Amino acid sequence: MDYVIGGGLAAFIIYAAKKWNKTEKEKIQHTFQNIGYVVKDKEPKLFKTHKSTTHTLYTYHVPYGLVDDPKLEVLEKVLNKPVKVSFANGKLHIKVYHSKLNNNYSYDSFESKGKWIVPIGKTYDGSVYHDFDDIPHMIVAGSTTWGKTVFLRMLMTHLIENNPNGVEFYILDLKGRLAFNRYRNLKQVKAIAGDYKESANALKKVKKSIDKDMDYLRSIDAENAKEANIPTRKFIIIDEAGELKPDKSMSDEDKEYTKKCQQILNHIARVAGQIGYKMIYGTQYPTKEILDPQIKANALARVSFRLATSVQSGVAVDQPGAEKLECKGRAIYKTVDDYIVQTPFISKKEIWERIGRYENDPSSKEDQKTRKNTVHFG
Ligand SMILES: Nc1ncnc2c1ncn2[C@@H]1O[C@H](COP(=O)(O)OP(=O)(O)OP(=O)(O)O)[C@@H](O)[C@H]1O
Ligand SMILES: [Mg+2]
């Protein structure tokens, strides 16, 4: 008698796989029961399934009283795929993405979309960009080494490449001027400050420039930079705003400088956005003391890399989640909507290949003229 070894076993494996490998739809339905996302014996009923290249969208009729519940976050672990749950038009929508985000997307995989539009990152649905002419001020939060400085440098590189003659930077590089020192030689960088006194001086220059621009706008009866056809945009970048918090160890003089800085930064946040001044406020410590309410209320774009606690996440992006971000460069980008993004990675080498030609470029006449007015502190 001949035996075919394995034949019966193969049939059993296929049978068992069918039995135990439940479909996504079945797993979701079981999860509803197991976590008690039901009303008495009534549970959500699948109403429509829509498949696309990036995701499958399941839409459910739910019993009255059920909405998008944080309990449903477990679906991400149950399905081992990224899941977005929302509740709209009386229905529950569960979007299950086919794959997770990569841990690295190179900067050159993003397009150039316009003068003041910068790439923010890849989401599950594609790339996301930010328009600084729509939303002028941005807070960039994140604990140490999760990606703030790479992100700030990437923004600068993009803005310089797109507007070599129309963008200006004032940089407060408050961790000893280590992150942006080389940028001082760029023609677009008008001031770079590494301590309190230099920061106060740099911001006083910005304040003077704002006053002048305001006078000009009033004289032509224009309300904003676009209406007045002002081509230049001025970016004030703060890399570690936490350093500007006055504390007991500071000299009285330094306390005064930090107060002056805070005062001018508040002024920029409140009045200067629409006249062409954009503030990018970076901090490791998003606490109520460091994120002044005026600045928070006016910085309507937020980018948060990983933070230590959900409380910090609440301060930075008004919602928990930043404490759970998994890898370097991963962030929550929030304006009206919020997205999980993997921000573009750019190396120092690539940055200087792209913008190195604007370092100490004495060949252009316009360049020489601007550089005369350029103030380098320290
Ligand atoms: N978008 C990104 N994609 C992949 N890796 C990244 C990304 N951004 C940063 N990294 C990695 O994380 C490291 C630290 O990043 P970065 O210097 O920007 O941190 P940081 O938040 O500024 O830290 P600190 O607060 O200490 O200054 C980088 O050297 C790089 O290896
Ligand atoms: Mg840094």
TrEMBL record:
PROSITE patterns associated with the record: FTSK (PS50901)
Residues of the FtsK domain: 125-314
SUPFAM superfamilies with a match to the protein in the record: P-loop containing nucleoside triphosphate hydrolases
Keywords of this entry: ATP-binding, Nucleotide-binding
Gene3D superfamilies: P-loop containing nucleotide triphosphate hydrolases
Keyword Nucleotide-binding annotated: yes
MF-aspect GO terms: ATP binding; DNA binding
Residues at which ATP binds: G142, S143, T144, T145, W146, G147, K148, T149
PANTHER family according to UniProt: SPORULATION PROTEIN RELATED, TYPE VII SECRETION SYSTEM PROTEIN ESSC
Protein name in the entry: Stage III sporulation protein E
Record lineage: Bacteria, Bacillati, Bacillota, Bacilli, Bacillales
